[in-house]
Amino acid sequence: MSSRSFRVSLLCHRTSVMRMMQRAMTAEARVQPQADFLKGNQHKRHPGISGMKTLRLPVELQAAACSVIKKANIPQLEEQAHRMKNVLWSRKRAVEESALRKKAVGLEKELWEKAMLKRGDDDEPALEEQIQRRVLSELRRTTYRWTPIKYDEETSVVYMAARLAGGYAAVRRALNEIKKRDPAFAPESLLDFGSGLGSVAWASHSCWPDSLKELVCVDSSGTMNTLAERLLRGDEEEGEPRFKHVYFRQFLPLSPKVQFDLVSAAFTLSELPGMKEREEAAFTLWRKTNRYLVLVESGTREGHQMLLEVRDALLQNQEKTVHDSRPASVFAPCPHELPCPKLALKPPAPCNFQQVHHPLPLTGKPDMQTEKFSYLILTRTAAPVPNGDSDPDWARLISPVQRRTRHVHCRMCCPDGQLRHLVVTARKHSKDMYRCARNSEWGDLVPLVLNPEDNNQNTSQQ
Questions:
Q1: How far, in Å, CA of 131 to CA of 109, rounded?
Q2: Alpha carbon distance, N-terminus to C-terminus of the chain
Q3: What angle do CA 432, 438, 439 make, to 5 degrees?
Q4: DSSP assignment, residue 148?
Q5: DSSP state of 41
Q6: What is the pLDDT of residues 238-283, one digit of tens each?
Q7: What is the C-alpha radius of gyration for the chain, rounded to an integer number of angstroms?
Q8: What is the reported pLDDT for 349?
Q9: How far is CA 425 from CA 22, 29, 142, 408, 451, in A?
Q10: pTM for this structure?
Q11: Is the pLDDT of residue 386 over 80?
Q12: DSSP per-residue codes, 214-251
């Protein structure tokens, strides 16, 4: 090789090395600002992960439930439990009187207009009576008839077979959001409104077994309270409670000044007859909240809408008498306090999440089931973000992450109140965000690093 060729080769080599170093330095400069949010954790354990693997009921609770079922000896229990589950899932809000009146006026106007077009010598009073009958008939045919569910001993056991495992899984997943993002929180008191089988008490005890010193479970059904206490005692009449300081009541504590560190209502709003009752219950529970209020409902459009009603009412708190002036702020799942963008979709879609769990070991049930639920957590303190006040922002994954070669599809609800569908790559969004997104699941928070081209990637369908 000639000396000139050698010099050209060396120059090309040096140029190539310098380019590689420049690319590395550019990439490092781009990634470094986002790397701090990991707090030393691996990407698969980043601070936004709050999801849980397949959940099981506590061993003592499952054993007690199986014992109750065996003693009850209810015929065709599996079929009854399946029907009960379907009824609860399809349950809707009662139609408000104002909405019913508006619908009736609209129907009457439409029928009168049709009658006027082909009116002959009809007797007007008779025509009016005929239209009123048709309006009433149409309202009866199309209006959802909400009725309260009354729980006797047999119905309570059927409800337990249908909902104990799924209800526990949903509540446990919601509480894990607090436990993961606020590790310093150690509640000493719990108030559970509409406590039913005591699932919230069991889930709370599994999260904070050492700090909880008072658990007040309130349910208007005396039969359900009796069953919940049986489960707590391992289905032994004289047995010791599996954990102490649990008190079952049929009414809320009267004093508005008595507060609890953690207040909850799981699958309870749907059992109240109207919006007015739901808002009154929400304000009552909020007055009794010292730190966190946790609400859980079925992951249906109806369940989501009820939670949004409560969210809006509490964020726009109009109470005249206020014993605790600390305002409400949204802790989860929303990364903002703006109107829910899912309601703007055509058709509107519920914001829901899922948790895989093992059901009670009944005949014909699969080894694993998926509970789909919606939840809302409000706090009296500023809602902490996974990495304090430092960048980046965090967005909530609202559907399963689709992992592809060198990129992942993330549909998320962002802090600006917009839905986005991001195709995340290491080159466009930093290696750290890419790895975090790839290791995240539906319901987790992910760090949000946007490029200018991402601003137009709004989600059009869910």
A1: 10
A2: 64
A3: 90
A4: P
A5: -
A6: 889 999 999 999 999 888 789 999 999 999 999 999 999 999 999 9
A7: 28
A8: 93
A9: 20, 17, 49, 7, 11
A10: 0.85
A11: no
A12: EEEEE-S-HHHHHHHHHHHTTT-TTPPPSSS-EEEESS
